[in-house]
Amino acid sequence: MPLLSVQDLVTEFHGPSGAVRAVDRVNFDIQPGEIFGIVGESGCGKSATCRSILRLFGGANARVAGGRIMFDDRTDLASLPERDLGKIRGNEIAFIFQDPLTALNPTMRIGRQIGEVIENHAKVSRREARERVLGLMRDVHITSPERRLDAYPHELSGGLRQRVMIAMALALQPRLIIADEPTTALDVTVQDQILRLLLDRRDKMGTAIIMVTHDIGVISEICDRVAVMYAGRIVETGAVDDVLDRAQHPYTKSLLAALPSLAQQGKPLIPIEGSPPNLLAPPPGCRFAPRCTAAHGNCSQDPAPVLMHRRGTASGHADACILER
Ligand SMILES: Nc1ncnc2c1ncn2[C@@H]1O[C@H](COP(=O)(O)OP(=O)(O)OP(=O)(O)O)[C@@H](O)[C@H]1O
Ligand SMILES: [Mg+2]
After folding, report:
1. Which domain covers residue 63, as residue numbers?
2. How far is CA 148 from CA 153, 161, 167, 170, in A?
């Protein structure tokens, strides 16, 4: 039974020029203890997909306009009243933001910020909370935590701030952690430590993780399965090895050729010509067709191609290209 099942999710942002459908009928399941990657170019809807799960739109005029988000097979988060969803946030599903400075309270010492998460959800004394905070800070490899309890967010390096946010995410032992580019702003060494932390948590506690990233290297290092998004839709999904080594969709192939990755070290990067479509007026049919070197007339005709399993590929590996099917 999947821990989370996202079914036909549609999410829209409303602005002066109309509605942008940032997520357009997205489907995926996450099993307990699984690390699921979401990858794709900037603006393709990775964050919108993740934010929809907990309705964390940060003040933007956005809404889940369709579909279901089944948690534990019993609760549809998409139709859950705000009050009930609030109980799931942090407790059962935690969110790690890309930029910790915008997510942390600048006027509160970090020990207190982590402590509040614990005190808000469990009846513990301040003293007990403090001990737990120190334990969490050690878990995320913050050295001399006693000294850092009293620091304000701006006094810490980017890597330390990200660790504080991860400590807050781990505080309540959620069953799912949604990590939206948790390491993009960090240097490679710190990035590696943070990924190890998350992996360690999954291995020890069976925590499921959604990992959003631009970086194919991150996907291949820690994810079990991956979804490739383009212009609001998933165009390919499957086990990481199948998708990265035997990519089927022309967009996945272009992305792999355009992104730096360990496997491709030394090979020249081939940028993808053109740019993703304006989601206010997306092209008909396959949204990648205008940039696809293999596309022909049928590719640009509605209905939009759906994810399908292709003969000769592994089970669970599906793509949304109509060519050579
Ligand atoms: N606050 C907003 N107001 C209006 N439209 C938005 C807003 N945030 C996102 N969008 C729209 O939703 C689309 C998807 O954005 P999203 O942030 O999910 O992309 P992303 O894949 O996370 O990109 P990145 O890799 O840059 O983080 C954007 O192309 C944009 O059209
Ligand atoms: Mg994003």
Report:
1. 4-92+174-319
2. 10, 11, 13, 18
